[in-house]
Automatic annotation (TrEMBL):
Source organism: Iris pallida (Sweet iris)
Protein name: Kinesin-like protein KIN-14C isoform X2
Entry keyword set: ATP-binding, Coiled coil, Microtubule, Motor protein, Nucleotide-binding
Cellular component annotations (GO), alphabetically ordered: microtubule
Compositional bias per record (Polar residues), positions renumbered to this chain: 119-134
Upper taxonomic lineage: Eukaryota, Viridiplantae, Streptophyta, Embryophyta, Tracheophyta
Length: 642
């Protein structure tokens, strides 16, 4: 909303500026509703602006700067001149780049301020055709209304400054600089009077000193000095001073000196008046300057707002551009889809053609098949007619059979009725039996319940007995331990050290008559006879725990040793060894002659067998670890055989 108001305000101001320029320069001839760019095109070369400067400051005179074509440098000089004047007037100004490319708002604001300034200080400028070659020419300025110069006297300081700065442009040639004094007097009437005054004192041949005293008195007494143009006064002063120079040794008449003093006084008076006037103008300009400065600030704020809006619009444009890119991308995808669909269409058309061809071929084959089928149908018709005849005969037969079957079924129905009757009677008897069975099942149920109760009682008693058995088993272990203890005590009683004697039979080739054994007792007595000795020395008796004769088997020998193996597993230390001379049968007794036969096993094999057997029997109660060590003791040296 703010931007719309701002835009309309700028447009309104632009219209005002165009109308003002049309009024100033009829040749400008730009429609009030022209766009900012059209206005820019008309102002950008600086000629119009420079013409405005001249119209508002007629004292600024330039030589013609060329024809219709303006070089860029000339354009820049025009613009610089215009901007210098605007700056010196403390009016809102603008940058050259604003006029060329930027927003026109600062240019329009500047021109409006200039219009206000000129209308307030100068009144409306008279319209003149805008002709660069004549408008900028110096001849026209000679004929310009002097009163306009009077009204723009407040700008003379500015003009002076402009002229000074123009010297910085070498191409600019200042032609005339009107001094403030040269612009007086101030009215057309006084201008006329001034001319008369000048004509009065115009000397064709004579000198000022030659003027009659009456005429000089008339000049000094009358108020014609007040109304005379300053240019005339200066020319008279110059004339008098020229005379003085020419007459170096001559005397200047008193009256001429009086006239000169009068003229100088008048010039001084005018200078002081101009100074006061300038001071007043300066005082007037100061508040205006303040006002314009505040307007500049407002315009800057508006310009900032405009830039913000421009930024928003740029952002929106970027968004629109992004959307446009998306739409184009979608369009591309759509084009690709169209191409793909076209390809699919072509492929489907090819397929349709193929299908049509296949259809035609199948149609032909179908027609052939139809012809074949028709031929077959005619054959089949004949056959079917024959079959119908056959079927009719069969139907007659079947009707006959049906009648027979009907009769048969009736007889069967009767039979079935009889059977039904029988079944019904049997069902009645079965029902009776079922009732009896139910009664018997009830009895059985009672029996089962009573048996259950009885069994539960028996189970209870069984549990009690099991408990007793468990207790007994526990007692059994105790008793078993007691038995073991007693067993080992028996073994101890038998003797911790037992000595058995085994007499081996004669070997093949040994003489049996050389035997010395006389008697072998039941309790381990052994009586030996030595035939070489007489008397008591010829008989010797020995006592062992037991003596095994030559006929004793390996098993008999081991039976006496076996209880010691059990003692080993009960935790007692047992040692069994054989002692005897070479060839007496130690190896035979301890190992056995032939290990492949169980009967020939010696003590060692049998003891190891029993050791593992008993440990296996006791594995539920005791875990045994069995180890073996084998050493040789020879000449009191122990050697590990393993
Ligand atoms: N009870 C027996 N019955 C039959 N033959 C026997 C008996 N005892 C020993 N022999 C035989 O007697 C011979 C000598 O026996 P054995 O080798 O056991 O004697 P040894 O004491 O071990 O001898 P060494 O000390 O030299 O080793 C062997 O041929 C053996 O078969």
């Amino acid at each position: 909303m703010g931007s719309v108001n701002l835009a309309s305000e700028v447009a309104k101001k632009q219209t005002d500026v165009i109308e003002w320029l049309n009024d100033l320069f009829p040749d400008f001839n730009l429609p009030p509703e022209a766009s900012a760019e059209e206005l820019r095109a008309r102002l950008v070369d600086g000629s119009v602006l420079y013409a405005i400067t001249r119209r508002t400051n007629p004292g600024l005179l330039e030589e013609s700067w060329g024809g219709d074509y303006l070089s860029p440098r000339t354009q820049m000089e025009y613009l610089s001149s215009f901007l210098l004047v605007v700056n010196e007037l403390s009016l809102p100004t603008f940058k050259v780049v604003d006029l060329e490319l930027g927003p026109m708002a600062p240019v329009i604001a500047c021109l409006l301020s200039l219009r206000e300034h000129t209308s307030s200080s100068n009144g409306e400028c008279r319209s003149q055709p805008l002709n660069r070659s004549t408008d900028f020419g110096g001849d026209r300025l000679e004929n310009m209304d002097v009163s306009r110069g009077e009204n723009t006297r407040g700008l003379q300081n500015t003009i002076s400054l402009v002229e000074e700065r123009k010297h910085s442009f070498p191409e600019l040639r200042t032609r005339v600089l009107r001094s403030p004094l040269s612009s007086a007097p101030s009215s057309p009437l006084s201008h006329q009077v001034g001319h008369k005054f000048h004509e009065t004192f115009q000397l064709n041949q004579g000198r000022h000193s030659d003027l009659p005293a009456a005429k000089i008195l008339e000049m000094t007494k009358s108020n014609s000095l007040d109304t005379a143009p300053t240019q005339s006064l200066l020319s008279i002063v110059n004339g008098i001073l020229d005379e003085c120079i020419q007459r170096i040794n001559g005397e200047i008449p008193q009256r001429v000196a009086c006239l000169l003093r009068k003229l100088v006084q008048e010039i001084e008076r005018r200078i002081s008046t101009q100074a006061e006037h300038i001071q007043n103008k300066n005082n007037l300009i100061k508040p205006r300057k303040q006002k314009y400065l505040s307007r500049i600030r407002v315009l800057e704020t508006l310009a900032t707002g405009t830039s913000e809006e421009t930024r928003i619009i740029i952002n929106q444009l970027q968004l629109i551009k992004a959307e446009k890119d998306k739409v184009e991308e979608k369009k591309k995808i759509g084009d690709q889809d169209v191409i793909r669909l076209r390809k699919e269409k072509e492929s489907s058309e090819r397929k349709i053609l193929e299908l049509q061809q296949a259809l035609e071929t199948s149609k032909k084959s179908y027609e052939q098949q139809c012809q074949l089928l028709e031929a077959k149908a005619s054959l089949t018709k004949v056959e079917s007619e024959e079959k119908i005849k056959e079927l009719e005969s069969l139907l007659a037969d079947s009707r006959k059979k049906t009648k027979e079957l009907h009769a048969l079924s009736e007889s069967k129905i009767q039979t079935w009725d009889q059977k039904q009757h029988t079944f019904q009677s049997s069902i009645v008897s079965q029902l009776q039996l079922v009732k009896e069975l139910r009664a018997s099942s009830e009895l059985i149920k009672h029996e089962v319940v009573s048996t259950k109760m009885r069994w539960s009682g028996e189970l209870n008693s069984f549990g009690l007995k099991m408990k007793e058995l468990t207790d007994a088993a526990e007692n059994y272990h105790t008793v078993l331990a007691e038995n073991r203890k007693l067993f080992n005590e028996v073994q101890e009683l038998k003797g911790n050290i037992r000595v058995y004697c085994r007499i081996r039979p004669f070997l093949y080739g040994e003489c049996k008559s050389s035997t010395t054994i006389d008697y072998i007792g039941e309790n381990g007595e052994l009586l030996l006879t030595n035939p070489s000795k007489q008397g008591k020395d010829g008989h010797r008796t020995y006592k062992f725990n037991k003596v095994f004769g030559p006929a004793a088997t390996q098993e008999q020998v081991y039976l006496d040793i076996q209880p010691l193996v059990q003692s080993v597993l009960d935790g007692y230390n047992v040692c069994i060894f054989a002692y005897g001379q070479t060839g007496s049968g130690k190896t035979y007794t301890m190992t056995g002659p032939n290990l492949s036969s169980k009967e020939d096993w010696g003590v060692n094999c049998r003891a190891l067998h029993d050791l593992f057997q008993i440990s296996r029997d006791r594995k539920n109660n005791i875990m045994y670890e069995v180890g073996v060590q084998m050493v040789e003791i020879y000449n009191e040296q122990v050697r590990d055989l393993l």
